[in-house]
Design goal:
The protein has 140 residues and is mainly alpha-helical. It is 54% helix and 4% strand. A two-stranded antiparallel sheet has the order 1-2.
C-alpha cells in the first residue's frame, strides 16, 4: 500500500511540474507527461477507496463515499486512507472471552487448554507455554 501511495505521489508531482515548467527543448514529451496528471491525479485521490475494496473492509462503502465527496479536504482523505488500511475488528459471540487468536485456532480444529503456571490458553499438545515459558506435559 505504501509503495502505491509513494509511486502515485511521485507520478502526480512529476506530471504537475512537467506541465508548469517552461522547458521548450522537450515540449512534446512535457505535454504528454503533463496530461498524464489527468490519469495519476484521480488514481491518487481514489487510493483510499481502492484500498478499502481491495482489503474487503466491512465499511468500504462508507470509506468510498467519504473519499469521493469529502476527500478534497486533506484531513478527510488521510482519515479515509487510515480507515481503509486499518485491520477490521473480529466480532466474537457473547461469552467468548479472548480475541482473534483463540477463534482462529478453534476454526482450524485445535483444542485449547490452560497453562498450569500462568493460566493463559495454549494448544493442548504444546510442550512449552508461549506466554510464560513453563514446560508443559502434553495430554495423551
Amino acid at each position: 500500500m505504501y509503495i502505491r501511495l509513494f509511486v502515485l505521489m511521485i507520478l502526480v508531482a512529476f506530471s504537475y511540474y512537467a506541465g508548469v515548467s517552461p522547458n521548450t527543448r522537450n515540449h512534446g514529451f512535457n505535454t504528454v507527461v503533463a496530461y498524464s496528471l489527468l490519469v495519476f491525479g484521480p488514481l491518487l485521490y481514489l487510493l483510499p477507496s481502492y484500498e478499502a475494496f481491495r482489503r474487503r473492509q466491512p465499511k468500504r462503502l462508507k470509506i468510498a463515499l467519504l473519499n469521493i465527496f469529502l476527500g478534497w479536504t486533506v484531513l478527510v482523505w488521510v482519515a479515509a486512507l487510515v480507515m481503509a488500511v486499518k485491520k477490521p475488528e473480529v466480532a466474537l459471540p457473547d461469552g467468548e472471552e479472548s480475541g482473534y487468536f483463540d477463534s482462529e485456532l478453534l476454526v482450524r480444529g485445535f483444542s485449547l487448554a490452560n497453562c498450569p503456571a500462568c493460566g493463559e490458553k495454549v494448544k493442548e499438545d504444546a510442550v512449552k507455554c508461549k506466554h510464560c515459558g513453563a514446560s508443559l506435559t502434553p495430554a495423551v
